[in-house]
Structures are given as C-alpha cells and as structure tokens.
Amino acid sequence: QVQLVESGGGSVQAGGSLELSCAVSGSSIRQLYMAWFRQAPGHQREWVSCMTIDDSATYANSVKGRFTASKDRANNTLYLQINSLKPEDTAEYYCAARFAPAGCGSSAGAYNYVGLGTQVTVSS
User: How many other CB atoms sit within 10 Å of the CB of residue 49?
Assistant: First the structure.
C-alpha cells in the first residue's frame, strides 16, 4: 500500500518561498507518476503539477515560472519549491500518485493514492 505524507507548509508573507515535501512509502518513487494538487476553501481541488517517471514536469499556467517540482529518488521524496508566493496560493496542498504506465493526469480522481495535505497560507 502506497502512503504519501506531505510536509513543509506554513504561513508566509506574499513574495516568500516554501518547499513542500511528499514522502513516499510502500513503493519506489521510480514507479510512480506524482502530482501536486491544491484546494482552497470553497473551491474545487486544482491540479498544480505532475512529474513523470523520467522526471519530466508540467505545471498549471497559474504557477508556471514560480513552482518547481523535483524528486529525490534516494529518499523516495517528491518536492515542490514554491517561490514568489501570492495570497491566491493559499490552499491545502496534496500530493498524489499512480503507477506507471498510467501517465500524468490533471484530475485528482485519476490518482490511486493521495496524501492528507499540508496547509500553505500567504498573507498580503
């Protein structure tokens, strides 16, 4: 059973940075397509990024150029570096995973495993 545990969230001022982590257990990250989603209060869950098994990443237009996903295979961990934070980035951030060869997808329902989330709050 794959388990995902997010960490690294917090409260920051606009323009600040955070690095979110998603620790993977129960499988090697090498076998997983990994995604980040976020959900703000009163809003639907929004796709943020996806990283393929060969480390190619794609991003939502709203975060492109500010967010960077990366992977540490030795530590079986996915990261999301978030720079130039804006108040509208305030949300619960979740990582999600599914096994290859399913591929990347932008729907949270397409992923078999989702973590419990980490809260990011950005003040103006």
Answer: 23
